[in-house]
Design goal:
Blueprint (H helix, E strand, L loop, with lengths): L8 H4 L8 H16 L6 H8 L12 H28 L3 H18 L1 H9 L17 H9 L9 H20 L16 H5 L12
InterPro entries: Homeodomain-like_sf, HTH-type_TetR-like_transc_reg, HTH_TetR, MT1864/Rv1816-like_C, Tet_transcr_reg_TetR-rel_C_sf
GO molecular function: DNA-binding transcription factor activity; transcription cis-regulatory region binding
Keywords: DNA-binding, Transcription, Transcription regulation
C-alpha cells in the first residue's frame, strides 16, 4: 500500500507555541525520535527544539520517563489512524477490514520505526502518568473490533485477539528490521505480506487433532 503523504508526523503536529508548550515539547520529542532514534531523546534537546528554556520540561513532565510516556500516548494515536485508514481502503467485509488493520500496522512500523520502538520498547509503568483512553479509537480497541467477527461461540475474545496480534506484530518487527531479506523496506509490498496474512483465514477455527 503506497504511503499516504497526509499520514506523516508533520501533518499531525500541533502548532508550536508557548501557550501550548506541553504539546510543543511532545512534538519536539517525536521529531528527535524520528530523526535520531530513542537514544537521542533528552529533555534538554526537546526544550531546545521547542525553543524554550531547558528547565521548561520540568513543569510539564516528571523527568524523561514522563516525556516518553506522553510521546508514546501521542504515538498510539498516530498508530490508530494508520490502521483505520488502511481498513477503510481495504474493503467492507470483516475479512477485508482485518487485513486492512494488519496492513496499517505494518505501514506504521515502516513509516515511523522510532515510534514503533517507543510504543513497544517502553516500560509500561512509564505510561501510568499518561493513561491511554481505551475508547473506540484506541489502537487495541481497533484490533479487538476487527477480531470480534472471528471469535467462535464459547471462546474468550482474547484468544483470537492474541493470535492476530502475535501474527501481525511478529511480522512487523521482523520485516521492518530487514529479516526477510529486504534491508531497507519502505512499503508493505516489499515483503511477503499477503502470503503471511493468508494465515488469517484460519483465525477462529479449531486446531486439527
Amino acid at each position: 500500500m503506497p504511503h499516504n503523504s497526509h499520514m506523516t508526523v508533520k501533518s499531525l503536529k500541533k502548532s508550536h507555541h508557548h501557550g501550548d508548550l506541553r504539546n510543543a515539547l511532545i512534538n519536539a520529542g517525536i521529531e528527535i525520535l524520528e530523526e535520531d532514534g530513542l537514544d537521542a531523546l533528552t529533555l534538554r534537546k526537546c526544550a531546545a527544539r521547542a525553543g524554550v528554556s531547558h528547565a521548561a520540561p520540568a513543569h510539564h513532565f516528571d523527568g524523561l520517563p514522563g516525556l516518553k510516556g506522553a510521546i508514546a500516548s501521542e504515538a498510539f494515536g498516530i498508530f490508530s489512524r494508520h490502521m483505520l485508514e488502511a481498513a477503510r481502503s481495504e474493503g467492507d467485509s470483516a475479512n477485508a477490514r482485518l487485513r486492512g488493520i494488519c496492513r496499517g500496522y505494518v505501514q506504521f512500523g515502516l513509516s515511523h520505526r522510532a515510534l514503533l520502538d517507543t510504543i513497544f520498547g517502553i516500560d509500561m509503568t512509564e505510561l501510568e502518568r499518561e493513561p491511554i483512553e481505551h475508547d473506540d479509537s484506541s489502537a487495541y480497541q481497533i484490533l479487538r473490533d476487527a477480531c470480534a467477527p472471528f471469535v467462535p461461540a464459547g471462546t474468550q475474545p482474547e484468544v483470537v485477539e492474541f493470535q492476530v496480534w502475535s501474527l501481525i506484530h511478529g511480522y512487523t518487527m521482523l520485516f521492518v528490521r530487514g529479516h526477510f531479506g529486504c534491508t531497507a523496506p519502505s512499503d508493505v509490498a516489499d515483503g511477503p505480506f499477503d502470503q503471511v496474512m493468508a494465515l488469517l483465514d484460519r483465525i477462529g477455527t479449531a486446531p486439527k487433532p
